[in-house]
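ingest -> validate -> predict -> emit
validate: passed (alphabet ok, no gaps, 318 aa)
predict: started
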Amino acid sequence: MRAPGWPGPDRHGRLHPHAIDRALGDGRMTESGPPREGDFAAGAEGAPDLDERVRAYRAAQAEVMRAREFFGRLHALVPRPWATWALIAMNVAVFVVMVASGVSATSPDGYDIFRWGGDFRPDTEDQPWRLLTACFVHVGAFHLLLNMYCLWILGPIAERAVGHSGYVATHLLSGVAGSLASHGFGAQAVGAGASGSVFGLLGLLLAYAVRLPRGTLPPDARKAMLRTGLFNVAINLVVGLSLPMVNNAAHMGGLVGGFLVGLLISRPPTDEDVARRPRRAAVALVVGSVVLALAAGAMWSTGWRSPWPSYETRRSRD
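emit:
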């Protein structure tokens, strides 16, 4: 026997999820509103199990609402992710100017990428600015669209988590970290693309999920960030290992760089945190730049300098 109007379990004791949805969302299902534990007769078949399901359902719904409120708070603090839009616009603008100057939109050669700021270790050792400019140069339209799509998806949540300034600092530092990591693993081709920075955003989300205390980050929100970060890292690693032209070292360098920056700047989303975000991002940018400069100096020291000729020299020999 069951309460009036209550859609009870089937012959196997299972309760269809739509039945619970209707029962909890519609006060008409019982005379006194949605069913509560204890609404069923003690001797009724399946009643204890139904009570437990109702409690579990309500607990799950409460966690979902907490996660929604948390992400709503992030959105309220940063309504418009203009830094993401600005970085996408910069990448697209560079590509448009490259194509307008005569560079192929689908298959530019290595020299074109190099001329526009691509990263090639023998030259970058004397022109370190290429570590950063390479992050805004792309090898064809498909490469650009793929990276900008990832930035469009991951950028807003990362920007809302740490603010405009923290987001920009993470983007730049992780991009340079990715370029430098490719040097450490002996990349002999011209490197370009924002994928190191994109992986940095994944690292930032992972750090945010790890860094925030349990009382401030709802479990469902934490799971969503960890799931998004780990899933995308796994997929891109599989793709990168199957395609020889993908620079996996740059991806992993960006991931680690973004994670470390995220540990420095991630804080619970409060009004006080918003006021301190620019200063915290500036500190992270300075510290990160010093660390990367020291790493580059150690890598490019006398015993570690690249044995290959510069791109111009190599090109003149071919």
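The radius of gyration is 26 Å.
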